[in-house]
Amino acid sequence: MYNRNELARIKQEFWTSFGRYMMPILSAGGEKINWINYKTGIKDIFFKMDVGISEAVIAIEFTGEEFQRKTNYEKFLSDRILFEATIPGNWKWIAEYQDENRKLVSIIRSELKGVNITDKKDWPEIISFLKSGIIGLDNYWVMVKDFY
Questions:
Q1: CA-CA distance, 120 to 25, in Å (whole number)?
Q2: Model confidence pLDDT, tens digit, residues 75-113
Q3: Could you give the residue ranges of the DSSP H alpha helices within the chain?
Q4: Were 56 and a residue from 112, 116, 131, 132 both cysteine, which residue would form a disulfide, CB within 3.0 to 4.6 Å?
Q5: Which range is least confidently modeled, 14-18, 69-73, 88-92, 111-115?
Q6: Whole-angstrom Cα distance, residue 86 to residue 80?
Q7: CATH second-level architecture of 4-147?
Q8: Three-state DSSP state, 50
């Protein structure tokens, strides 16, 4: 069992390693990009990654006022075939989801179960999962961003 400080240190080490691994990879648009803090350029649409002690998650989160949140989510939903053809993974589409702050959001997420950030043997599998997901999201986003 790890205390809060140890877990925070391990997470920081993981994200630093992931960032270094991804640094040489250019976006689909040919630019250098901060993969860990991916900027969609659209208010209230976020690409997020998280790793814990039982799973890794990559997600698109839609926030903001209810009308705009639902509109953005439904735009993605209308492109679901292209989305799933472009981005590897088993994606869950959730129109209404309560986040960790008890705020209502819409979310599209893919999970890798059975991995643990505190076990460095799991890091290659986690990195591979996150890399394919975020690069897939970037490829998709370059194609559709102008519609938002």
A1: 23
A2: 999 999 999 999 988 999 999 988 888 899 999 999 999
A3: 4-22, 66-78, 80-86, 123-144
A4: 112
A5: 88-92
A6: 10
A7: 2-Layer Sandwich (3.30)
A8: strand
Strand order in the sheet with 55-62: 45-51, 55-62, 104-113, 91-98
How do the domains of the chain map onto residue ranges? 4-147
**Angle between helix 123-144 and 4-22 (nearest 10):** 60
* Structural contact between residues 89 and 59, judged by C-beta atoms closer than 8 angstroms: no
Q: Where are the alpha helices (DSSP H) in 23-103?
A: 66-78, 80-86
The closest alpha carbon to 117, from 104, 102, 127, 103, belongs to: 127
Q: What is the DSSP letter of 25?
A: P
At residue 3 the predicted structure's pLDDT band, cuts being 50, 70 and 90, is confident
- pTM comes to 0.92
